[in-house]
Amino acid sequence: MTIRLIIVDDDPLVRAGLTLMLGGDDDLDIVGEGSDGRDVPELVARHAPDVVLMDIRMPHVDGLTATELLRARPGAPEVVVLTTFHADEQVLRALRAGAAGFVLKDTPPAEIVAAVRRVAAGDPVLSPAVTRQLMTHVAGRPEQPRRTTAADRLAALADRERQVAVAVGHGRSNAEIATELYMSVPTVKTYVSRILAKLGLNNRVQIALLVHDAGLLDGEDDA
Q1: How many CA atoms lie within 13 A of 93 on its CB side?
Q2: SS3 5
Q3: Do the Cβ atoms of 201 and 168 come closer than 8 Å?
Q4: How far is CA 218 from CA 159, 209, 214, 222, in A?
Q5: How is residue 136 annotated by DSSP?
Q6: Which residues contact 155 (CB under 8 A, 6 or more apart)?
Q7: Among candidates 211, 218, 201, which has minimal Cα distance to 95?
Q8: Which residues of 70-104 are buried (b: 16+ CB within 10 A; e: fewer)?
Q9: Model confidence over 109-133: pLDDT tens digits?
Q10: Residue of 217, 97, 209, 210 whose CA lies nearest to 155
Q11: What is the tens place of the pLDDT at every residue in 93-109?
């Protein structure tokens, strides 16, 4: 399958570098480029990409706003945020908006290519360790209103779904969750899909963030 890709960055040198880096792979097709978040709706409508590589800091419409608007639309492409920060409030906001993950601009080319492929296949670009690190260093302890809202949302889950959600929040892989909860890996995948549907989330990173917000990673409620 050829992955259709759009690159959005206000620096023409960065766009040129990414195009050179990604354009040499047979399964990646760069179908469009933009210099600002305000270009995104028209580019997506015209080119129907599978993935958008989105810079955060742009002069008119930043990548975070563009991501939020794009991911609110049905059938939206996946978004991978480009950033120079390892752990930043802006990255957290992008993940909450439905971005599939983030890559650093100085990431080796092969890893950026692998990230685009993973996102196109439906996998977030954050390893469990990076997910946990991001929440630890950026999110901090959730404020009470956000904690209450998150807990109310998670109340919609059945007990077994809640256990899987908490395990995702702890950064467990599907195989680790299967071992921990005495399930098969396909059953874990089914539960994760069910949780996403029930909670209206885009990916398991958002599950992890919601579980964090509810305070379920503090040792007070891991059941």
Answers
A1: 13
A2: strand
A3: no
A4: 18, 13, 9, 8
A5: I
A6: none
A7: 201
A8: bbeeeebbbbbbbbeeebbebbbbbbbbbbbbbbe
A9: 888 888 888 888 777 666 555 555 6
A10: 210
A11: 777 778 887 788 778 88
